[in-house]
Structure formats: structure tokens, C-alpha cells
Amino acid sequence: GHDYFRSEVNGKGYLAPIESNFKTPQPISYLTDDKGDECTAFIKRHAGRPFFLFASFNAPHTPMQAQQEDLQLYAHIEDKKRRTYAAMVHRLDENVGKIVSALDSEGIREQTIIVFLSDNGGPSDSNASINAPFNGQKGILLEGGIHVPFILNWKGVWDHRTIDFPVSALDLTPTFLALAGESSQDSLFTGINLLPNLLDAKSTIPDRSLLWRFTISGAVLRDGWKLVRLPDRLPLLYHLPSDPSEQRNVSLDHLDMTQLLLRELGQWDVRQPHPVFLEGAVWKRRQLALYDKPYRLTQPR
């Protein structure tokens, strides 16, 4: 997170100075716009040869700060924080459009794959985001915390194609390698090559599980069944095709599935190396409490 309007030479946290390894950074105007400007400048500098651009926007992360002109567009939203959130996402959308327009103007849109995804669901307790119809939020492994927008766009090639199974950001590397002509897949990759499914809608759905481990919780998703493991209660089991909002814990009704997924999650756990970095202990109690909060399950009109 960073302040969207200013930084300080010796600032810390949200006021830390903007850093660059190849130029003196321009003064902040509005950080989302500045990031968009840097991205379009990068595209123009590199348009004549293959490039990789990781455009890591921080919006709509706190602090909740928006341009006045964008706030006016959402003046009909009574809740001030929700209005600011909408304005911040609007400005993010404008700058994603700026990037796409730069690809068009340089004549390389058809040669460029665009990936758009979020790192987690919205922290609805702090920025007025709404993850409906999914339950939960950032910091926990209910769908509201991990089910995010994920768009792969290759104009003229992948138009109007939908993949009807769960995918992960970990699938990007093996997919990109396959696109680059690397036919053999390194067994160290957790992700899978999505190219067959992107090119042929009738391709076989992969037989695999998705697994997560985060601070105090772990989760596994397989064949529509999702198990969440917490330190202070029996496992939670949801059947997402019939219960996408995770309202019915059926762990005791389907003990065989509960045991199967709990075993798979545990065996995966013990195969992992010890993590280099863990969140501070202060987050444990807070994240556990987030599992017991009520969450809005409908989007506003």
C-alpha cells in the first residue's frame, strides 16, 4: 500500500519514496495514473521486440483515496467509503484501458497476451469491497478470499473462450512456456499448461486438486468439493457447484469426502519445505475471527 497523492524523501510505510532503478521518478500526481503512464512508456520503449510487463497496480488497496472527478461519477453511492472504492476501481479500469490502447497504437495487440487477475478477494472489513455472491474476504480461504477475476486475452485467438474448471496463477508459467515452444513440462511446476483448453473447448478437464495454506488455515478443492481446515473446529466441507456461497457445511454428512480431502491436504502439507517467510503472529487471531463474521452475499443494485 502507498499514499496515492504524495510521498516523502525519508517517508516510511504509505509515505515511502517511490523508487526506480533507471531514472528519477516523477512526482506523484495520482499513483494509479502514474503506474499506467509508466506501463505505456515501457510498451513504447520495447514494442520492437518481445517483452514481459508485470503491471502491479496497488489500487484499490488502502488508503482509500480517489480523484475528485471520479468521486463525482459515483456521487449516487451514499456510503462514502464504498463511493471511494468504486472511484478507485474506475481509475484502475481507465489505466488498464490505457495499456490496451498502447498495444493497439503500437500495432502489437494481436501479438500480445494480456493477463488480468487479482491476488486475493477484497478486504470488505476495511475498504467497502463486496465479494458477493462469495462468502468471506481477503485473509481467509473461503471463496470471497481466493475466488478472483482471472482473464487471459489474446485478440483474435482466444476470443469468447471460457474455461469451465478452477485455474490458478500457478498455471501461467507452464502455459507461457508451452506458448514459447517448450513442449516438455518441468515436474517442479505445480501449475498446468492451459493451452490445450484455451485452443479447444472440448479438451479434457485436468484431474487435479488446488491447495492453499495461509497463516492459520489450509484448504483443498477437488471435483467441486472444497475443504477448509482451521485450528479451533472440525473441518468445513462445501460442495461449490450447489453451494457457491459456502452456506452449508456438509462435513459430517459426507465423512468419506471429508477424510479423503483432509488426508490429501495433510500429505501435501508435510511434503512442503519450511516456508522462508510467515506472517506475524498478530494476524493469527484476526484471521481466525474473520471466519465467524457475516458477509454480504448479494451485490448492490
Mind explaining what this structure looks like?
The chain has 301 residues and is α+β, with helices and mostly antiparallel strands. A hairpin with a 6-residue loop joins strand 5 and strand 6. The protein is globular and about 60 Å long. The two termini are 29 Å apart. The model has no long low-confidence stretch (mean pLDDT 94).
Topology, number of strands: 6
Q: Work out the helix count.
A: 9
The biggest sheet amounts to: 4 strands, antiparallel
Helix content: 25-40%
Strand share of the residues?
5-15%
Note the topology.
Layout: H1 31-46, H2 68-73, H3 80-105, E1 114-117, H4 124-127, H5 143-146, E2 150-153, H6 172-179, H7 195-199, E3 210-214, E4 217-222, E5 225-229, E6 236-239, H8 255-271, H9 282-290
Antiparallel strand pairs: 1-2, 3-4, 4-5, 5-6
Helix pairs in contact: 1-3
Note the main attributes of this structure.
alpha+beta, 6 strands, 301 residues, two-stranded antiparallel ribbon
Summarize this, please?
32% of the residues lie in helices and 9% in strands. It is α+β, with helices and mostly antiparallel strands and 301 residues long.
